[in-house]
Automatic annotation (TrEMBL), chain A:
It is found in: Nucleus. Residues 124-145, 266-291, 331-357, 867-895 are annotated as: Disordered. The lineage of its organism: Eukaryota, Metazoa, Chordata, Craniata, Vertebrata. Keywords: ATP-binding, Cell cycle, DNA replication, DNA-binding, Nucleotide-binding, Nucleus. CDD domains: AAA (cd00009), HLD_clamp_RFC (cd18140). GO terms for biological process: DNA replication. SUPFAM superfamilies: P-loop containing nucleoside triphosphate hydrolases. Residues 346-357 have a biased composition (Polar residues). It comes from Anguilla anguilla. It holds the Pfam family AAA. This is Chromosome transmission fidelity protein 18 homolog.
From TrEMBL, chain B:
Coiled coil: none annotated. Signal peptide: none annotated. This is Replication factor C subunit 3. PANTHER family: REPLICATION FACTOR C / DNA POLYMERASE III GAMMA-TAU SUBUNIT, REPLICATION FACTOR C SUBUNIT 3. GO terms for biological process: DNA repair; DNA strand elongation involved in DNA replication.
């Protein structure tokens, strides 16, 4: 406030003394200044303020005032302060002037520009030819320019109400009364800094103080009657504020509309739009705010501008058009036999191919597009799945086509949360609702970008949405198609009626497997370099970069026709200040390179094949200049290339495998085998390397791995096209080793521990097994074993013994040819025998016989073990074994035996009687049988019972246990008889 | 118990057929009722395990022959479950920790510690210590061997370790120094012959001395193999004849054929064939060291003079790398290629010399 002080110097100490207070009060108070004095000096703002109070008769005068460039809202506010505060103490005529002067320096520009807008609109309407064009502030530049361009149409178009526009200027003034140069002493404030660095303070009003001060102010004022609780000024201000907002919105909308209309016009003109773009671009350049990526700025806005493959574009568009019936309710081209123009080419093709036994991919795609709509008039495939490497324009295509077909695009991508529930919610929102607010009442088209990263659960949700069926189809059908449509509108909760476009890079992600079958698949072919180059040239021309086509070709090649990468590289170079681009630069550039993910086969191919001799490029010569000697340089170049290739492929294990499996089948001109030796040396080295890496977690060694392919390339690369086989030897060997090992382990598992402790897997495979198999193949006469001599029998017993102790047996198996054969079980034969030298085998009959003997022996042993365990049965068995020695089980007198068992069971099973609740009942009379059965005389008692119960009568029965065990009691035959 | 190998295996130290002096020493060692940790090593088929079992029998009595198989599952700190089978009696526990592969360290730590930490309650009826018998120690990883070091000292009062392996070269020094090393050498040809004859006599068969000798030689003095061969001979043809065919293990035959293939032609195509054969051998669980050893033995017989040295050196080089690496096939094939190159050069030089 230095100037302030200077100016008023001695004049009033009062003010000096109470400067702060005065200011505060000024903020609060809204006492209008004395009209007579101030109105002349003031610009339109105070006048408009006045307007609110009195009437709008002074408009024209105000307009004159507006033309003064210095005038601004802030000035008036500061003018207001003293005038309202100190009506009596101050010399009113002088003061405002000074205020004006001093404040004009500091008036914040932001305010002004707001005012500008208002003014512009007003003037455009009221007097179009008015010459006032206020100096545009930078912030508002673009809008103002566009306005200036479209000044005439703006005036001719009438849109919003006139009243609003007229009202706007005064509103602007009232809205900005409290701008201070320094923070107010009391009360809250907000500091605002404008673009030129001036800081001003906006004081916040406290409602209480406002009211309090108001009352005072009202008392003081001449004409306030105090009828309103809220002073009229405040009300006025509120109203004005609202109006202003409306006006600003309106003006923005207008500008947008105009812009878009112009865009459309230019777009139709084809080529007109670039100019506009260019202009915009130039504007941005001038402003120094060209922060937008070229990729965005030059992204295609229309179908005709798309760079991607035409066929793909057309297919997607046609698919989207299939939805027209259901979405827009148009009865439509699907009914027609064939949409004429896109199919011309195809029908030719079909004619050409006389026997269409094998359909081409194109034909299949066409068929899909021709297919009938389903019952809801939807196309057969409800989802289009676009796939292809990055930078081909998939997302752009989806957006543009959806827009082109009249949809409102709703995009979901990997940046959104894609848990199943949210996914569901968003899909539903997008497909079943539509925006009611705003001008675009287009139906939605859901674009799910980067779907290959979505979790499987989310994709399942999508699938479920696709496959939803309407519950009450029958009703709909009876009601007919017309009502069907209406019905759908009502209860669309269930069925999907909007197209969904999914985009992914990798089509073969496991999560997409289900979706793949239900989706209309569109694979993007690589962009044509010629078209890309054309576009790049256009962009660089617009950016004033001098670029020759060769360089652009090189760039395309380098980035693998990745549109995004190309444009980014261009912009990068541009921003670096390079206005020229030639081939050499492109060659030497390391930017724009990406980790290409080439297939393994192509990598192997490149390793084993010398690069074709290309025409010399500038870049290569450059390298040649750096090195000396052409031969060495190409070798070095090749080495670099292979190193890069190998390190970017990432799958070293597989890569090495492929090299190892294939290098010997190459045409080797290597009579001394030196190359082969060194190749194997390399393989051994890389093996040790990877072992160290894996074992010691020392992954810094990984950087040496790509040198193996490079070495192989230098050793074995030839000009002829190599035939590469997929490396499976290692895997096969691994599985077979595993198989062998498993057989051995299975064999060992059941071997008796005393033998087991002497035989490990290793020793089994090395020493024992081969010979063991010899041992178990004795020469057996092909006769019934009954007829064997003692020695032969002995031999057989030994054989069976051996096989049992080594857990071997024969198992009948059916070969694929339908023959039955006996195989060793576990099949260690394969493990021990090499395929090369077949050994003597036993005959089928012999094996069968052995298998049977083994089975018998095994039973015998099991029985022996059992007997050893419960000695009671031994006596019984002994009797039997005495009779039938060697056979399976004593099988005789079968009904008796069975009965015996039954009775025995009942005897054994007799439990203390219990009642329903499990309490033991005291038996009224002891059953005879239980009483008789003692510990020692069980066998006797069995006999006894049998004699009593069964032996005496012809009737016997067996109690089959029922399901109900609620009440059970033993019933004896003697009770029945 | 029907194979002769199992049937006629001695179970007492006094009844061992050869290295009787060593058997006596072992007996003396155990006599006092205690012994240090043992490291028993020697080639396969020399009778290491037999000797160890005899020793245990001497120590604990016949109870040690009541064996049972115990399946144990150990959870590694990485939550990986390791299934391991061990053979145990009341007095000892036999584990092949190398079955667990890379997690053998966990097995060593858990299993041995649990055994070692449990104290015998009644020391009057039993020895104060249990014996843990670890087989194939040379196949243990270094980690596992290091895990063993401290355990061996710490639980000396309750536990004795008997380590059994083929070669001490892969057993780390600290372990070797903590053990009493016992080498069980292969029996001499005569000893093998006498064992064979005595076994045949017990079977009531007559074995011609010449055949016995041939078997002994063919088996490479590996007694287990010799007995199996003998039994296989018996199965093939009983009244033995001195010049009858002695069956051999398939893989050895196959290896010989491979070696012949290498010698007969040296070209990338042949190398490819050899590769297939090497794979075949590897899939039959034949360890690569043994393959390379067998190959060298066969190939050397086809070389002369200074070539032998060169080949032997190459073999040593590649076997060393084999131990360092993981994929055996690379190193085996590298050796074969190296041999081919050397051999071819040698032959061509010889041819040139002849021409001149």
């Amino acid at each position: 406030m230095d100037e302030y002080d200077e100016m008023y110097g001695i004049e009033d100490e009062f003010e000096q003394q109470f400067a702060d207070e005065l200011e505060v009060m000024a903020e609060i108070d809204y006492e209008p200044p004395r009209q007579t004095k101030v109105s002349e000096l003031r610009n339109k703002k105070p006048l408009s303020f006045e307007d609110a109070l009195v009437s709008g008769d002074l408009i024209l005068k105000k307009q004159g005032a507006v033309s003064l460039p210095e005038c601004s809202a802030s000035q008036q506010s500061s003018v207001l302060k003293p005038a309202s505060l100190l009506p009596e103490a101050l010399d009113g005529s002088e003061l405002p002037e000074h205020f004006l002067d001093s404040d004009s320096f500091h008036s914040p520009k932001s305010k002004r520009c707001r005012q500008d807008v208002a003014k512009k609109l007003k003037f455009g309407l009221s007097d179009g030819g008015h010459d006032i064009t206020p100096p545009s502030s930078p912030e508002d530049y673009s809008r103002s320019t566009s306005n200036s361009v479209q000044a005439v149409p703006a005036s001719t178009l009438d849109i919003s109400g006139l009243g609003e526009l007229q009202a706007s200027p005064r509103r602007a003034t009232v809205a900005t009364p409290h701008v201070l140069r320094r923070p107010p002493a009391s009360g809250d404030y907000i500091s605002v800094t404008d673009s030129s660095g001036n800081r001003v303070y906006l004081a916040k009003k406290d409602e209480d103080t406002v009211r309090a001060v108001d009352s005072r102010a009202l008392r003081n004022s001449h004409y306030s009657l105090g009828l309103l609780s809220v002073p009229i000024e405040v009300l006025m201000e509120q109203v004005a504020e609202r109006r202003h907002r409306q006006v600003v919105e309106e003006s923005q909308r207008l500008t947008e509309m105009l812009n878009s209309r112009i865009d459309e016009e230019f777009g139709e003109l084809d080529g007109g739009e670039p100019e506009e773009d260019e202009q915009a671009a130039m504007d941005e350049d001038q402003d120094g705010t060209a922060s937008r990526l070229w990729v965005d700025r030059f992204s295609p806005r229309h179908y005709t501008e798309l760079l991607s493959d035409d066929f793909t574009n057309r297919c997607l568009l046609k698919w989207l058009k299939l939805w027209d019936t259901v979405v827009f309710g148009r009865e439509k081209p699907t009914k027609k036999p064939k949409p004429p123009q896109p199919d011309n080419k195809l029908s030719f093709q079909q004619k050409d191919q006389q026997n269409p036994r094998f359909k081409t991919k194109i034909q299949i795609t066409e068929e899909i597009l021709e297919a009938e709509l389903d019952q809801y008039q939807r196309p057969k495939y409800k989802v289009a799945l676009l796939s292809g490497p990055p930078g081909l324009g998939k997302t752009t295509l989806a957006h543009i086509i959806a827009k082109h077909a009249g949809y409102n695009v709703v995009e979901m991508n990997a940046s959104d949360d894609r848990s199943a529930e949210l996914f569901q919610k968003r899909i539903d929102t997008a497909t079943q609702m539509k925006s009611v607010l705003g001008a675009n009442e287009k139906p939605n088209c859901l674009v799910i970008d980067e779907i290959d990263g979505a979790p499987t659960a989310a994709i399942n949700v999508l699938l479920a949405t696709l496959n939803r069926k309407e519950s009450r189809e029958t009703d709909a059908e009876t009601a007919g198609i017309g009502s069907l449509k209406k019905k759908k509108k009502k209860k669309t909760e269930s069925v999907l009626l909007r197209p969904i476009i999914c985009i992914c890079n990798d089509l073969y992600v496991p999560a997409l497997r289900q979706l793949r079958q239900q989706a209309f698949l569109l694979t993007f072919p690589p962009t044509q370099p010629s078209r890309l180059v054309q576009r790049l040239a256009e962009i660089s021309r617009r950016q004033d970069m001098k670029v020759d086509t060769g360089a652009l070709m090189a760039l395309c090649e380098k980035t693998d026709n990745d549109i995004r990468s190309c444009i980014n590289t261009l912009q990068f170079l541009h921003r670096r200040g390079q206005k020229q681009l030639d081939q050499r630069m492109v060659q030497s550039m390391t930017i724009g390179l990406k980790d290409q993910n080439k297939g393994l086969f192509s990598v192997w191919q490149e390793i084993f094949q010398l690069p074709r001799v290309k025409r010399k490029r500038v870049g290569e010569e450059l390298f040649a200049g750096m090195d000396h000697g052409g031969q060495a340089s190409t070798a070095a170049h090749r080495l670099q290339h292979i190193l890069h290739l190998a390190s970017s492929s990432g799958e070293h294990e597989k890569l090495t495998q492929g090299l190892y499996d294939n290098f010997l089948s190459m045409k080797l001109k290597d009579p001394s085998l030196r190359g082969v030796c060194s190749a194997l040396e390399w393989l051994g080295f890389s093996d040790i390397l990877s072992e160290t890496m894996m074992h010691g977690q020392n992954f810094s060694l990984m950087r040496y791995l790509p040198f193996l392919p490079a070495a192989f390339h230098l050793l074995f690369a030839a000009t002829s096209v190599p035939r590469i086989n997929y490396p499976k030897s290692q895997y096969e060997a691994l599985t077979r080793t595993q198989h062998t090992r498993n057989a051995l382990v299975a064999m060992l598992a059941e071997i008796h521990p005393s033998i087991r402790s002497r035989v490990g897997v290793l020793c089994l495979s090395l020493d024992v097994l081969g010979l063991l198999l010899e041992v178990i193949c004795p020469k057996l006469r092909p006769v019934n074993p009954q007829l064997y001599s003692m020695r032969e029998k002995q031999q057989l017993v030994e054989l069976v013994d051996t096989m049992l102790s080594y857990n071997l047996t024969y198992r009948q198996d059916r070969s694929p040819e339908g023959q039955y054969m006996y195989l060793l079980e576990p099949n260690v034969e394969e493990a021990a025998r090499s395929r090369a030298c077949p050994r003597r085998q036993l005959t089928y009959q012999a094996k069968q016989m052995i298998a049977r003997e083994i089975e018998l022996e095994r039973m015998r042993r099991a029985e022996a073990v059992l007997q050893a365990r419960n000695p009671q049965r031994r006596n019984e068995e002994e009797k039997n074994t005495a009779k039938h020695s060697g056979s399976l089980k004593p099988a005789a007198r079968n009904h008796q035996q069975r009965l015996e068992n039954i009775v025995k069971q009942t005897v054994v099973e007799t439990r203390p009687e219990v009642d329903f609740f499990g309490r033991a009942l005291v038996p009224k009379e002891k059953p005879v049988s239980t009483a008789a059965s003692g510990e020692e005389g069980k066998a006797v008692s069995v006999e006894l019972q049998m004699g009593k119960a069964v032996g005496n009568s012809d009737v016997w029965f067996r109690f089959n246990e029922g399901v109900s065990n609620a009440v059970r009691r033993n019933v004896y035959i003697k009770d029945l008889l | 118990m029907s194979l002769w190998v199992d049937k006629y295996r001695p179970t007492l130290l006094g009844k061992l057929d050869y290295h009787k002096e060593q058997a006596n020493q072992l007996k003396n060692l155990v006599q006092c009722g205690d012994f240090p940790h043992l490291l028993v090593y020697g080639p396969s088929g020399a009778g290491k395990k037999t000797r160890i079992m005899c020793l245990l029998r001497e120590l604990y009595g016949p109870g040690v022959e009541k064996l049972r198989i115990e399946h144990q599952s150990i959870t590694a700190p990485s939550k990986k479950k390791i299934e391991i089978n061990s053979i145990a009696s009341n007095y000892h526990l036999e584990v092949n920790a190398s079955d667990a592969g890379n997690s053998d360290r966990v097995v060593i730590q858990e299993l041995i510690k649990t055994v070692a930490q449990s104290q015998q309650i009644q020391s009057s009826t039993q020895r104060e210590f249990k014996v843990v018998l670890l087989t194939e120690v040379d196949r243990l990883t270094k980690d596992a061997q290091h895990a063993l070091r401290r355990t061996m000292e710490k639980y000396m009062s309750t536990c004795r370790l008997i380590l059994c392996c083929n070669s001490t070269s892969k057993v780390i020094g600290p372990i070797r120094s903590r053990c009493l090393a016992v080498r069980v050498a292969l029996p001499s040809t005569e000893e093998v012959c006498s064992v064979l004859t005595s076994v045949c006599r017990k079977e009531g068969l007559l074995l011609p001395g010449e055949l016995a000798k041939r078997i002994a030689e063919k088996s490479g003095r590996n007694l287990r193999k010799a007995l199996l061969m003998c039994e296989a001979c018996r199965v093939q043809q009983y009244p033995f004849s001195a010049d009858q065919d002695i069956p051999d293990t398939d893989w050895e035959v196959y290896l010989k054929e491979t070696a012949n293939a290498i010698v007969s032609q040296q070209s990338p195509q042949r190398l490819l064939e050899v590769r297939a054969r090497l794979y075949e051998l590897l899939t039959h669980c034949i360890p690569p060291e043994i393959i390379i050893k067998g190959l060298v033995a066969e190939l050397l017989s086809n070389c002369d003079g200074h070539l032998k040295a060169e080949v032997a050196q190459a073999a040593a080089h590649y076997e060393h790398r084999l131990q360092l690496g993981n994929k055996a096939i690379y190193h085996l094939e590298a050796f074969v290629a190296k041999f081919m190159a050397v051999y071819k050069k040698f032959m061509e030089d010889g041819l040139d010399a002849m021409m001149i």
